[in-house]
Design brief:
Blueprint: E1 19-31, E2 37-51, E3 55-60, H1 67-74, E4 82-87, E5 90-91, H2 96-100, E6 103-106, H3 120-130, H4 139-149, H5 155-158, H6 168-180, E7 186-190, H7 198-215, E8 218-223, H8 226-232, E9 235-240, E10 243-249, H9 250-255, H10 260-267, E11 317-320, E12 323-325
Parallel strand pairs: 3-8, 3-9, 6-7, 7-8
Antiparallel strand pairs: 1-2, 1-4, 4-5, 9-10, 10-12, 11-12
Helix pairs in contact: 3-4, 3-6, 6-7
Bound molecules: iron/sulfur cluster (SF4).
């Protein structure tokens, strides 16, 4: 699958991705009593994606789709059951300082991720000190620079503040600044705005877009909100029950969704032209991952399900330039793709018409 990011930056010819997942799979054993393994949770199955500098790749799905497990495998917090993580084209080390200086994870909850007993000088100064990215004599200037990079200004005032003096959006900016302190190439943002007030989400999304464009970071944006993914991302991968079911350029995929699950997600996304609040309730619920459905995992909820859907796993069919859909409905009209989520094909940058749940001013 190939396409070029819509904001203009392109994966440079021949350069390896900043971070790559190859066929990552994660099965969690469930143990009951005396450590006996009784079952497996099939959380992630055979997911491949490439993250390039200067691009945002969104992984979208409901709770239980495996998107956060995927982010944690990429952060090396969880060992995959099988598959490989490559950093700059080489097998990635199993965590440690070398890896965390290249790949940083930003978590969902900005209230829990900052230690309330320390001020911002300590919170931001500590990673600078541990990773040796600033000398003691210049630490204050480096901290103020970090604060400015995440638009917490005047930095001279913010450096003196405690976490409880900040809004949720400002705390998430501090969490992002802390991640930037080690000068990473890759930012893994796991639902970074979902715990923030709707009124301040847009500011954090715009900050991530700015870091992509200005600092050429490779960003993975994990979210349940496909409208915000369209707003921010160059590429979207839609996950259902541990598998990528559709992937492609963000605007193209959301304008022309091919997989029935993507169509369902979009039908439940906020739409200013629709009077009623959208919901996935009534559209069934995700399956148990202990005994996931055979064949296409979406078949118990799919309005187009055919007998073969319960028996055979559909491959990823090429359904548009750089767009794939794992659905038997495309079998006659499309060719099978390698099924790697990767921003390599051309898509013009367009103004997003979908409104994320974030149509409000900055959180400053
Ligand atoms: Fe629906 Fe079958 Fe396509 Fe799965 S493969 S999304 S069940 S039509």
């Amino acid at each position: 699958m190939t396409h070029t990011p819509r904001h203009g930056a392109q994966p440079t010819g021949g350069e390896p991705p900043a971070l790559e997942a190859r066929a990552l799979t994660k099965h969690f054993p469930i143990r009951r009593g005396w450590g006996m393994r009784t079952a497996l949770v099939h959380a992630v199955e055979d997911v491949s994606l490439r993250l390039y500098g200067g691009t945002v790749t969104a992984v979208v799905g409901e709770s239980g789709s495996g998107k956060s497990t995927l982010a944690r495998m990429l952060a090396r917090l969880i060992e995959p059951t099988s598959g490989q993580v490559l950093l700059g084209g080489a097998p990635a080390p199993h965590g440690g300082r070398e890896y965390s200086s290249a790949v940083q994870l930003v978590l969902q909850d900005p209230f829990a991720s900052l230690n309330p007993i320390h001020g911002l000088r300590y919170i931001l100064g500590r990673p600078l000190k541990i990773h040796g990215t600033a000398q003691d004599s210049s630490a204050d200037e480096a901290i103020k620079d970090l604060l400015r990079r995440v638009a917490l200004t005047p930095a001279e005032q913010f450096i003196e503040k405690m976490p409880h003096e900040l809004s949720g959006g400002q705390r998430q900016r501090v969490a992002i600044a802390r991640a930037l302190a080690v000068q990473p190439h890759v930012l893994l943002a796991d639902e970074p705005v979902s715990m923030l007030d709707v009124s301040i989400r847009l500011g954090v999304l715009n900050l991530l877009a700015d870091l992509r464009d200005r600092e050429q970071l490779a960003i993975l944006y994990v979210t349940h909100d496909i409208a915000s993914a369209r707003y921010l991302a160059d590429t979207i991968a839609v996950m259902y029950a541990g598998r990528v079911v559709e992937a492609g350029p963000a605007v193209q995929l959301t304008d022309h969704p091919q997989h029935p699950y993507t169509q369902l997600l979009l039908s439940a996304a906020p739409d200013p032209d629709r009077a009623e609040a959208p919901s996935l309730a009534g559209a069934g619920s995700p399956p148990s991952l202990v005994n996931p459905p055979s064949g296409c995992r979406f078949h118990p909820r799919c309005p187009f399900a055919m007998p073969r859907c319960a028996e055979q796993l559909p491959p990823a069919f090429e359904v548009g330039p750089g767009q794939t859909s794992a659905c038997w409905l495309h079998e006659t009209s499309a060719t099978v793709s390698a099924n790697t989520v990767s921003p390599d094909t051309v898509e013009e940058r367009t103004t997003s018409s979908a409104t994320p749940e974030t149509n409000a001013p900055e959180d400053q």
